Amino acid sequence: MFLLRLERGISRFSNLLGMLSAVLFILLLFNVFYDVLMRYVFNDVSIAMQELEWHLYAAIFLIGIPYGIQNGGHVRVDLIYENLSIKGKAWIDLFGCLFFYCHLLCLWLITEPSFLTKRFY
Fold it and tell me: Which residues of 60-85 are buried (b: 16+ CB within 10 A; e: fewer)?
């Protein structure tokens, strides 16, 4: 019973993050429109708005990942995946996520200590 409630809570949180990502995408759309309008019509460039584009894009990408994984919207090669059973698809999804996250964890463990020593010493 606890695991079912936990799964529903995580699912709701993932849906909330998906909605937040959609709102941020709309803000990014207006930001790019404003930036292009100011640059080509009024010949005025705002570095802050260009930086905001990158920050919004990064936030959309990072916040939207759980929603994409939950709804199967993430990128994968469907050469083998299409013909598998639901259980086989679940195993490939699990292996893919663990394989990807293990590499990120190793990269972080390798680079982070050297970054901290350079920063504070």
Answer: beebbbbbbebeeeeeeeeeeeeeee
